[in-house]
Amino acid sequence: MKNMIATLINPPENWSFWTAEKISELENATDNFKVGEQLVLENNEFKIWTIHLPPGESMPFHTHSKRYFWTALSAGKSISYYNDGSVLETQYEVNDVKYFSDLSDANFFTHNLENTGSTELIFMTVEFLKELDVENI
Question: For the chain, how long is the longest CA-to-CA vector?
């Protein structure tokens, strides 16, 4: 992470910030593993996704169960609702990066992405398909 500022506006296990519609969207997204809008490249080791999210638009709830990182290609603001009940507001700068190293089928999270800013949010996400071989690092 470079300049990204993330603010927790609703703590885990507190669903008071959630609407019934948001809870329903989350419950219906358990099988959505599409972590970007467009799949740009896929091979047996990784998938590269892009996201172009105009102001006021949302990316639906989706599940991350593989190691991945995202890079912000534009500055902007978002809000995301997570399957543990937490809600996070984030402000991005160009070239912000975040890496998630410990995800698996047993350790995953589901969230959405809503553009709450006045600029288009553009991200590149790289999802690693193979488990990390820590013995050969």
Answer: 47
The C-alpha atoms of residue 52 and residue 37 are separated, in whole angstroms, by 7
State how far the Cα of 128 lies from the Cα of 63, in Å rounded to an integer: 14
pTM of this prediction? Answer: 0.91
Helix H or strand E encompassing 23: helix 20-27
Does residue 14 contact residue 104 with C-beta atoms inside 8 Å? Answer: no
Query: Does residue 99 contact residue 128 with C-beta atoms inside 8 Å?
Result: no
| Closest-CA residue to 14 (of 99, 68, 84) | 84
User: The domain at 5-130 falls in which architecture?
Assistant: Sandwich (2.60)
> In whole angstroms, what separates CA 77 from the centre of its chain?
13
Relative to beta strand 68-72, strand 58-64 is unpaired
The 10s digit of each residue's pLDDT in 101-131 is 999 999 999 999 999 999 999 999 999 998 7
Q: Do 77 and 91 touch, CB atoms closer than 8 A?
A: yes
Q: One-letter amino acid identity for 62?
A: H
For 14, phi and psi rounded to 5 degrees? -115, 105
